[in-house]
Automatic annotation (TrEMBL):
Domain Knr4/Smi1-like: 25-163
Name of the protein: SMI1 / KNR4 family (SUKH-1)
Organism placement in taxonomy: Bacteria, Bacillati, Actinomycetota, Actinomycetes, Jatrophihabitantales
Entries under InterPro entries matching the protein: Knr4/Smi1-like_dom (IPR018958), Knr4/Smi1-like_sf (IPR037883)
Pfam families tied to this protein: SMI1_KNR4
Length: 369
């Protein structure tokens, strides 16, 4: 109801008064009849959807309606002309089970618009859910597969409010959720990471920057490059100077990986703030002059990290890791974009301490607010 203007919907008096756009639910008999006709049991999230509303009158973009369960059919049968068009776009090198003809031939069409939402019973998760993907005129290929019908609808809605409804109250709810997740992450609780990924689909820049840091501490190679699309969010942010821009520059100038193009693209962007550009250029000069970057954290943590560096330079790695953990309680985030001290990933000396297990230990360790 909140987005009826953006969707161009004309509502009946009943829909306005009831604040409900859906249809009556499908009964168990209707669900069983559809499953008998299709020769398989529907996945749980699709069954649950139909048990609440037997179809939905309109989705965003050009996906049209979600069809009633009685109209659920194979894509090749429901839209044979479109099936032929998409199936002819096959890459000959693709595996037979994952090529367009195979996937599209077994997938079910759940929407009736010019663009198509499909469920693939050939990609079944451990929970029994089917992979969901879209075919659109504005995105090549089968798009980003989601693990279930429910996840597909959630992703679809997130894309809609991100690009079509910048003032949606959903954005406020997402901001509040990201703040809650941030506090939990600083306390070493990782149960909110999937919700953080969902927040990035809504276009929440803070979630994107936090997620880059989380992933950098698990698999650092190229991790900093994912900041490329979010540098505008780092303007004048203390965490950018302290950790985030050094992470980006170190990833881009990794001598074992030709990723300098990312730095060129960042510096050529007309949207890059002058202060960020100045910092990037200074870090590039320092990296090229000294063969890498060295962290400069303020206060007690910075002082203790100098001792850690001395131990690393002496190849006392066990003692250095112990000293790093003893120093960690004195670390303070430079801003609400700051998840952890990332020198373990990008500092030319301290990154010798990094292992995936050490990264996980750091993420699980409570860190001061």
């Amino acid at each position: 109801m909140a987005h009826r203007d953006e969707l161009g919907m004309e509502l009946s008096e009943h829909e306005i008064n009831s604040e409900w756009l859906g249809n009556p639910p499908a009964g168990e008999g209707e669900l069983a009849a559809a499953e008998a006709r299709l020769g398989r049991r529907l996945p749980a999230s699709l069954r649950e959807f139909y048990s609440i509303t037997n179809g939905w009158p309109l989705t965003s973009f050009d996906f049209g309606v979600i069809v009633p369960v009685a109209e659920l059919a194979l894509f090749r049968d429901a839209a044979p002309d479109m099936f032929e068009i998409w199936a002819d776009d096959e890459d000959d090198d693709e595996d037979e089970d994952d090529g367009y003809p195979a996937v599209l031939g077994r997938s079910f069409l759940v929407s009736d618009g010019p663009d198509h939402m499909l469920l693939d019973p050939g990609r079944v998760g451990p929970d029994g859910e089917w992979g969901t993907f879209g075919l659109t005129s504005w995105y090549p290929g089968m798009g980003d597969e989601q693990p279930s019908f429910r996840a597909g609808l959630s992703s679809h809605y997130a894309t809609f409010v991100r690009y079509e409804v910048p003032e949606s109250p959903t954005h406020d709810a997402v901001r509040d959720e990201v703040e809650d997740i941030y506090v939990r992450l600083l306390n070493g609780r990782l149960d909110g990471v999937e919700a953080l990924r969902t927040a990035t689909k809504h276009g929440n820049e803070r979630a994107s920057v936090l997620l880059v840091q989380y992933e950098a501490l698990l698999l650092p190679r190229r991790a900093g490059l994912h900041l490329l699309g979010h540098l505008s969010a780092l303007e004048a942010d203390p965490a950018a100077e302290q950790d985030l821009l050094p992470l980006f520059v170190s990833s881009a100038l990794d001598p074992h990986d030709a990723m300098g193009w990312a730095l060129d693209r960042a510096l050529d962007s007309p949207d890059l703030a002058q202060s960020t550009r100045t910092t990037l250029l200074r870090l590039v000069d320092e990296h090229r002059r000294d063969g890498g970057l060295r962290a400069r954290y303020p206060g007690e943590f910075g002082e203790q990290l100098s001792y850690v560096r001395t131990l690393v330079e002496s190849d006392w790695m066990f003692e250095a890791w112990q000293a790093f953990n003893l120093a960690l309680p004195s670390w303070r985030p430079a801003s609400t974009l700051h998840l952890a001290p990332l020198a373990l990933v990008w500092d030319v000396d301290l990154r010798r301490l990094f292992t995936p297990e050490h990264g996980r230990e750091l993420l699980r360790a409570p860190r001061s607010l």
